[in-house]
């Protein structure tokens, strides 16, 4: 595909987007490469957390706790399946995509879990025209992404696994423990090659919708991805993403000042953790999700507001409108929470916060 | 290889103080050298205690404790665990009959020097703080050095680095070499830095090492062959003890600063050991290291990961969380894979913990946190033979009793003691002027610690805040209770602060938390008052119970108003009061949707809130309160009694005009409104200040009209409620109402009085009797 065509594609998969980094890492790799892998575990780690491979700069893909990434990679080395759990907006899918891209060289073998996902999408289905014409033959077999990964010794991704009905989830149990799929119609078994694994993601907010059975959970190594650990990290993440989004959507507004970024992230962190940053006061958390991704979209929204209806400068009013919308999602309770936060915490923050406080108070 | 032999031939063995690996290597080294003297880094005046340390009945963890006899009590602590190289060296020497001694500065000097260092550090910090605002963001230089080492080695923290490189190093001899070269390099870096930036720290080490060199010289002079002497010391000092040339002279020893100290052994706990911090002193996972030590002793170290993870799983199973053997196996595999990622031969504690988190906790720390704590830290408590321990807290109590002139109460006879907390203006010194207040602080602290020396008696006639009645009685049990408090802290003050903090951490309702703030106030512990404030604030955020919030407001309000009675600044509580008040106001409407039974409590709460609004009108959001009261008084879906109460409060505060009031009365009492609602509302209205009601004639006109508008059946119903409403009125007030109504009915005052004070006729009595059996039907 030519360079122009590439630019028109809305979103490139990780292995294409970071192709030059992957090539450089493979070239500079000195570690032992596990069977079926494209590079050594140490190089995979470097691909995710950033560093240098030869003279090529490797950009960090995941900013935050490096140890979690180590644990994820170590899991895949032991050929166990990996389950990433976290609040919405904690980079679960992003991480799973990049891990697959680094370890297997492609991240496209995806099963998207929905209420409508059926067992066939996990195992295999048939091309019914051929099935009727010729009976069960290997050619008539339509393999699921998981089956293809098994055949190839690669990594399949299973997104939002807890949205699937439990019988679909159960279909995974035998795949993960036996590492085979039997096709009784053809009278044969398909065994996975070395390197096969599954990276699944699940949302903590979906807990209880289709709770995963203990039997299935037991077959995964479970890693919980947290919200960013400190203010600094989160501000960095937000800043990076807002800049990227603003340039890709061509927003005609100035990037938010560091101060505004700081304030938004501070408010988000305090409401999320139910605690002021200095840990001196507890605050009530609203019912909705207030993730980092949400802070990013709040800021880009406010920028769009400022660009379209303002003078292109982000004002306290734009931020207040965004905050009100992000925090007070549905019911009166959130309204109370936000009001208490404004009066108990924000009001006492002094002159720097005065403008934002007044704007929020008017909006509330 | 011969790095262990020094110029004088003395063997120097550098260790980390709480290190099973170090202990194991030291033991095999001792077996090889077979010294006649084992010299150990530790306070030299504690040498006589060694026989107690290695006594058969002694079970580590224990600690050598030195403490000053004067206040403030300063202490120094040398903890020993089963796997301490020092402890194992003492045991070995005992078995082999070798001479053992501590060779570091005596405790009296250690504490005096410690004092000087703290002072200089404090003053340095103060001057720095004035320059840099963000003092807490700076990490100590030394810590960052260790962190850098870990980072360079690709490890996440220094403990992980240490374990992987030293504890796992089973290579005989290599350990000793590695540790010496490592620590001498570390020393070069930090020494260079200290020489310029921290002269005191540098001098401190120089003094200690010179003293230790002198002790080694003395041991040689006492007839031990230099190559039959082994010195066990922190790896940091090993290089400095090689050359014995510059030992400390007698004059120099005499010139050392010194404070009077006492030495004792005390039982210690793994929990305490794990919470110490600082290089060498801290040992985050004592039980884990004990497991490591035990496996080293029977040559099965490779079993440690299996054993560790099985222990965690077993604990989980015992507490009702099932985890399969398959998961333990996978956890071991993950731990090994993590270790391999760092190029290690065996998993470190961190690897094991993370593997347990992923497999046994299924990603959630909360599930396994307790099991991990049990396995890492353990619950071991040391033991000592009876009578060995002479604790500083006993000393402290005696000193306090003497200072507060209470020694004569130390008898088995119960004595009454009446305290007057106010300043005694007839005496000259401040100490004497507040003698009783200080006694009260001590007594409250003893009560908090559960030491039954004192008991408070409800003060009789006066509920004055400045008077307290106590009964003081000494008994042998008291002595035991005091000794038991040692583990809580070295002085009564520290121990009670600890206990209070524990209670605060465990409190789950705002009532508990506010009671604890009060306790802190009574004990005169400012710091814990602040902690209590934070706890209460945290709990208050989640509570929607207005009654409870009001109760806390009441407590806080009292403390804020009378705080100076105990010479304590209670102003920091004001923002919390504000916040609680705001919360109570916001939830007033919600809470008022209750039945009559619950309304009694709410009524009290509303009275408290209104009281607080008046007394602290400067601080709390009075506007909000009035506004919420208005909502409540207008709402028809809340408890009518409470709406009535709200109305009467508004009347009192003049937040409601006579016009509005009469409108409300006629609306509430209009025909068609069920009688019990109308009467219930009126009952609420009359529950507060009656004279405000009695002085408003228009109100009674409305009531009159209302009664007139009722048909017979409704009247009987309403009568029951009205009777209840007026039942709490005093006879005089009832007469006033009757007269008021009489006026409206055109009956003059004398006639009315005559009817009211006259005897009941039989028929009337019967009617009243019947009312008692009134059937409320579906109410």
UniProtKB/TrEMBL annotation, chain A:
One of its GO terms (molecular function) is ATP binding. Pfam families: AAA_5 (PF07728). InterPro entries: ATPase_dyneun-rel_AAA, CbbQ/NirQ/NorQ/GpvN, P-loop_NTPase. Residues 82-220 form the ATPase dynein-related AAA domain. This is ATPase. It comes from Paenibacillus etheri. The lineage of its organism: Bacteria, Bacillati, Bacillota, Bacilli, Bacillales.
UniProtKB/TrEMBL annotation, chain B:
Pfam families: DUF5682. Residues 120-144 are annotated as: Disordered. It comes from the Bacteria. This is Uncharacterized protein. It comes from Paenibacillus etheri.
């Amino acid at each position: 595909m030519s360079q122009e065509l590439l630019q028109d594609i809305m979103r490139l998969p990780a292995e294409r987007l970071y192709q030059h980094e992957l090539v450089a890492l493979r070239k500079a790799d000195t570690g032992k490469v596990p069977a079926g892998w494209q590079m050594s575990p140490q190089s995979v780690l470097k691909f995710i957390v950033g560093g240098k491979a030869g003279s090529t700069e490797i950009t960090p893909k995941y900013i935050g706790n490096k140890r979690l990434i180590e644990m994820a990679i170590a899991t895949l080395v032991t050929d166990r399946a990996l389950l990433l759990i976290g609040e919405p907006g904690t980079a679960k899918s992003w991480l799973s995509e990049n891990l697959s891209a680094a370890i297997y060289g492609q991240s496209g073998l995806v099963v998207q879990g929905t209420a409508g996902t059926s067992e066939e999408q996990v195992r295999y289905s048939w091309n019914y025209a051929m099935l009727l014409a010729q009976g069960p033959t290997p050619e008539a077999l339509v393999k699921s992404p998981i089956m293809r990964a098994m055949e190839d010794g690669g990594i399949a991704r299973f997104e939002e696994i807890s949205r699937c009905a439990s019988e679909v989830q159960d279909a995974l149990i035998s795949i993960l423990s036996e590492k085979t799929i039997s096709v009784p119609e053809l009278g044969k078994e398909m065994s996975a090659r070395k390197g096969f694994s599954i990276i699944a993601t699940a949302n903590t907010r979906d807990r209880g919708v289709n709770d995963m059975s203990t039997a299935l959970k037991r077959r995964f190594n479970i890693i919980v991805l947290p919200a960013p650990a400190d203010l600094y990290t989160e501000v960095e993440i937000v800043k990076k993403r807002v800049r990227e989004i603003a340039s890709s959507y061509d927003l005609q507004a100035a990037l938010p000042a560091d101060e505004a970024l700081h304030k938004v992230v501070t408010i988000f962190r305090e409401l999320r953790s139910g605690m002021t940053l200095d840990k001196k006061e507890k605050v009530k958390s609203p019912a909705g999700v207030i993730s980092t991704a949400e802070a990013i979209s709040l800021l880009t929204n406010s920028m769009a507001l400022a660009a379209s209806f303002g003078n292109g400068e982000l004002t306290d009013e734009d931020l207040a409108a965004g905050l009100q919308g992000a925090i007070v999602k549905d019911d009166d309770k959130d309204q109370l929470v936000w009001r208490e936060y404004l009066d108990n915490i924000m009001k006492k923050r002094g002159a720097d916060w005065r403008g934002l406080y007044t704007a929020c108070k008017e909006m509330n | 290889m011969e790095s262990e032999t020094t110029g004088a031939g003395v063997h120097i063995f550098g260790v980390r103080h709480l290190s099973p690996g170090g202990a194991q290597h030291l033991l095999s080294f001792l077996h090889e050298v077979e010294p006649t003297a084992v010299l150990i880094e530790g306070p030299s005046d504690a040498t006589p205690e060694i026989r107690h340390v290695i006594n058969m009945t002694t079970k580590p963890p224990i600690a050598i404790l030195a403490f000053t006899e004067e206040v403030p009590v300063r202490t120094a602590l040398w903890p020993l665990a089963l796997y301490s190289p020092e402890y194992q060296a003492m045991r070995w020497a005992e078995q082999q009959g070798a001479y053992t001694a501590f060779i570091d500065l005596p405790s009296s000097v250690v504490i005096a020097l410690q004092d000087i260092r703290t002072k200089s550090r404090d003053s340095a910090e103060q001057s720095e703080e004035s320059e840099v605002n963000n003092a807490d963001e700076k990490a100590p230089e030394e810590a960052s050095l260790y962190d850098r080492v870990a980072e360079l080695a690709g490890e996440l923290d220094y403990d992980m680095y240490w374990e992987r490189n030293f504890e796992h190093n089973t290579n005989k001899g290599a350990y000793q070499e590695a540790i010496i070269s490592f620590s001498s390099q570390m020393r070069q870096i930090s020494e260079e830095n200290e020489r310029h930036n921290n002269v005191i720290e540098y001098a401190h080490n120089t003094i200690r090492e010179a003293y230790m060199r002198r002790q080694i010289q003395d041991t040689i002079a006492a007839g031990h062959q230099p190559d039959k002497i082994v010195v066990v010391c922190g790896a940091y000092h090993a290089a400095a003890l090689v050359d014995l040339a510059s030992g400390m002279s007698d004059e120099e020893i005499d010139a050392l600063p010194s404070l009077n100290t006492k030495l004792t052994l005390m039982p210690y706990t793994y929990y305490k050991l794990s919470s110490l911090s600082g290089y060498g002193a801290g040992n985050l996972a004592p039980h884990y290291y004990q497991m490591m030590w035990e496996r080293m002793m029977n040559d099965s170290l490779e079993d440690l990961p299996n054993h560790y993870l099985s222990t965690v799983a077993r604990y989980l199973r015992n507490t009702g969380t099932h985890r399969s053997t398959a998961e333990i196996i996978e956890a071991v595999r993950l731990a090994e894979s993590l270790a391999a990622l760092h190029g290690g031969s065996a998993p470190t504690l961190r690897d094991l913990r993370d593997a347990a988190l992923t497999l046994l906790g299924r990603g959630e720390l909360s599930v396994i946190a307790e099991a991990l704590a049990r396995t890492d830290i353990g619950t071991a408590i040391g033991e000592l033979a009876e009578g060995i321990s002479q604790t500083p807290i006993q000393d402290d109590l005696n000193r306090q009793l003497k200072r507060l002139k209470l020694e004569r109460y130390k008898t088995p006879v119960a004595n009454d003691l009446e305290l007057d907390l106010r300043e005694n203006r007839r005496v000259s010194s401040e100490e004497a002027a507040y003698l009783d207040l200080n006694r009260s602080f001590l007594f409250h602290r003893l009560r908090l610690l559960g030491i039954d020396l004192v008991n408070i008696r409800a003060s009789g006639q006066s509920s004055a805040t400045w008077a307290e009645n106590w009964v003081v009685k000494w008994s042998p049990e008291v002595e035991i209770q005091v000794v038991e408090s040692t583990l809580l802290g070295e002085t009564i003050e520290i121990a009670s602060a600890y206990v209070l903090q524990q209670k605060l951490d465990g409190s789950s309702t705002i009532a508990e938390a506010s009671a604890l703030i009060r306790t802190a106030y009574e004990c005169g512990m400012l710091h814990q008052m602040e902690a209590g404030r934070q706890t209460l604030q945290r709990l208050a955020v989640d509570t929607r119970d207005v009654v409870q919030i009001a109760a806390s407001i009441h407590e806080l309000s009292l403390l804020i108003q009378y705080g100076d009675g105990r010479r304590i600044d209670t102003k920091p509580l004001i923002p919390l009061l504000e916040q609680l008040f705001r919360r109570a106001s916001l939830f007033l409407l919600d809470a008022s949707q209750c039945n009559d039974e619950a309304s009694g409590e709410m009524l009290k709460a509303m009275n408290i809130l209104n009281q607080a609004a008046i007394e602290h009108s400067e601080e709390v959001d009075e506007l909000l309160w009035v506004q919420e009261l208005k909502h409540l008084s207008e709402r028809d879906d809340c408890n009518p009694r409470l709406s009535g109460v709200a109305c009467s409060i508004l009347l009192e505060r003049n937040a409601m005009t006579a016009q509005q009031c009469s409108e409300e009365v006629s609306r509430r009492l209009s025909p068609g409104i069920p009688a019990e609602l109308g009467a219930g509302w009126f009952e609420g209205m009359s529950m507060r200040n009656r004279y405000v009601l009695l002085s408003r004639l228009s109100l009674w006109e409305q009531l009159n009209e209302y009664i007139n508008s009722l048909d017979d059946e409704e009247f009987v119903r309403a009568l029951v409620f009205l009777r209840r409403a007026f039942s709490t009125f005093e006879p005089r007030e009832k007469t006033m109402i009757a007269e008021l109504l009489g006026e409206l009915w055109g009956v003059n005052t004398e006639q009315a009085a005559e009817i009211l004070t006259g005897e009941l006729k039989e028929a009337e009595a019967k009617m009243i009797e019947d009312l008692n059996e009134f059937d409320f039907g579906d109410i």
